[in-house]
Amino acid sequence: MDIIANYGTTLVLVAALFGFLMAWGIGANDVANAMGTSVGTKSLTIRQAIIIAMIFEFAGAYLAGGEVTATIRNGIIDSNAFADTPDLLVLGMIASLLAAGAWLILASYFGWPVSTTHSIIGAIVGFAVVSIGPEAVQWSKFGGIVGSWIITPAISGVIAYFMFISVQKLIFNTDDPLNNAKRYVPFYMFLTALVICLVTIKKGLTHVGLHLTDGEGILFSIAISIAVAFAGWLYIRGQQYNPQDDSKMHFANVEKVFGILMIITACAMAFAHGSNDVANAIGPLSAVASIVAAGGEIGGSSHIAWWILPLGGIGIVIGLATMGEKVMATVGTGITHLTPSRGFAAQLATAATVVIASGTGLPISTTQTLVGAVMGVGLARGIAALNLGVLRNIVVSWVITLPAGAILAIAIFYVLQICFS
Q1: CB-CB contact of 232 with 260 (8 Å)
Q2: What are the phi and psi torsion angles at 316 (to 5°)?
Q3: Which of 82, 83, 316, 384 is most buried by its number of CB atoms within 10 A?
Q4: Is pTM beyond 0.85 here?
Q5: Nearest C-alpha neighbor of 207 from the set 306, 128, 119, 118
Q6: pLDDT (tens digit, 9 = 90+) per residue, 153-181?
């Protein structure tokens, strides 16, 4: 308690710095995962992907990032176990931010697409076990989160598989693929817009004072989605398509239509990612700020300070801009060959899965969700379409991440205890 009383402001500033570092790592790794399919299919350049991420990642983090943050802050460890020693919880959360952020930046440097959720959860569990004991960890919730790491890639893979199968049946395996693409792609635009609008209006906009009933939210979402689909239909009809392009690359004109759709799904994926994974950076930071502001008292719930969500959003965007290129290459081209139509199916499946998880407050791994979706698209073409060597390396990096976060957090936690004792 004396540490909080004597160094409260310093602790918050250090936590903010390490929280920004963690957000930087998320941007370099997880956002690169989210945008990698768009860049890999050449639907977007790296610069365009960064601009989209700047707008939609920040919007997702600021408008819809609060609910998952509460799960990260209060759900993994039992805060009551630290009631008599809140200083340990504060130092542990700071150690977790630095440990997870450092690991993510290292992984991004080598182009490893690891899980930011694994990193921060491993770090938090690591310091909790050495500071209080195994009883400080709510293993039932931890088990549910571990289960989601298996379930969510499977869900996104199934959605992506059937999404791509529908594209094949409705468009590619027909006598007139181009005209059918013009006919059905606006429907896919409607579906994409509906997924993202539902969570935004239902949950996200309450942060800016707009409260709608369930019925109003659904009607408003449908109206916006229809407008998006209509605008897309007009844009597609206005484009020029050269039949000679198909002689150079089969279905080139159809893929051009899907390239337009990839931009919309990239926006949806960026928003969905910002709404979910910003919690990995600002959850522990919010806990530190709340405890210090309360003079060491650990409350059941607390209001997220106004500056925390923007800090996480800005850090994510800067991380993508400075270190995201290597991980983009791994995800966009390494697992399987992606075209705009395949990338769309993977992105929409990932966005739908992440948005659903964000709405329920469950912190999932966007990395594993996206890899599951890309695998689902690859399996729709046969297992030979997958680069099993790359997938094996990705899985190994996932296994290493959890203990790496824990070990680093334990070491940093002991160092912080010496510094502030």
Answers
A1: yes
A2: -60, -45
A3: 316
A4: no
A5: 306
A6: 888 899 999 999 999 999 999 988 888 98
